[in-house]
Design a protein that fits this description.
Strand content: 5-15%
Distance between the termini: 30 Å
Mean pLDDT: 94
Radius of gyration: 17 Å
Low-confidence stretches: none
CATH topology: Four Helix Bundle (Hemerythrin (Met), subunit A)
């Protein structure tokens, strides 16, 4: 499966999941400081920003050759967690009953742009330059993990196919290995010892 196929599948699963969220659950706690509404708003950006970045100029140079490098070496350096949290809240507040249709339309435009660009086209994420195919792997990661967060918070089925979950888990494991935690992951998965408390591949 290609990153484009996984992206389209994960995006549709996310949109289907959100369509099933009952109105009474929107203000329920979901992840950290986010309620369900904020988390949905944040996750929707994994779809909408693809169009934004592909309409912009390509990055002049490649600084992250793959998704593993992005998460292991540059993600924490350039990510402002407070700003991310604020954008999620703002995106959540902007949601309306028409948002589902708007996100479907945004996904359609993003897929058209993906199809019209080469997989090695460099996407500019601020100072970061990453190939399109690898950037899409990061979007799949966001969509899959946060869809699971939303499903857990709302007691719904995320509906993500096993092969997409497997590809996401593979990326997470590869990032852990890149960060020097391969032994920790293998020992945890084979029951030898638990992961360190609050371990995350997204932390520096």
């Amino acid at each position: 499966m290609t990153s484009t196929t996984d992206f389209e599948t994960a995006a549709h699963c996310f949109l289907d999941l959100v369509g099933d969220v009952r109105p009474a659950l929107w203000e329920e706690p979901a992840l950290g400081s986010w309620n369900v509404r904020s988390l949905v708003g944040h996750t929707s950006r994994a779809i909408t920003v693809v169009e934004t970045y592909l309409l912009a100029d390509p990055a002049p140079t490649m600084t992250a050759p793959d998704a593993e490098t992005y998460y292991a070496e540059v993600f924490t350096e350039y990510t402002d967690n407070d700003a991310v949290a604020t954008r999620g809240v703002e995106a959540g507040k902007a949601l309306t009953e028409n948002s589902g249709a708007l996100f479907e339309a945004a996904l359609g435009r993003a897929l058209e742009l993906i199809a019209s660009n080469a997989p090695d086209r460099l996407v500019a994420l601020g100072p970061i330059g990453i190939p399109l195919s690898e950037y899409l792997r990061t979007r799949v990661f966001e969509l899959v993990v946060h869809s699971m967060d939303i499903a857990k918070a709302t007691d719904l089925d995320h509906g993500i196919p096993a092969h997409v979950v497997a590809n996401t888990a593979d990326l997470a494991a590869r990032v852990a290995v890149r960060k020097g935690n391969g032994e920790d992951i293998l020992f945890a998965l084979t029951g030898r010892r638990p992961l360190p408390l609050r371990y995350s591949i997204l932390s520096s």
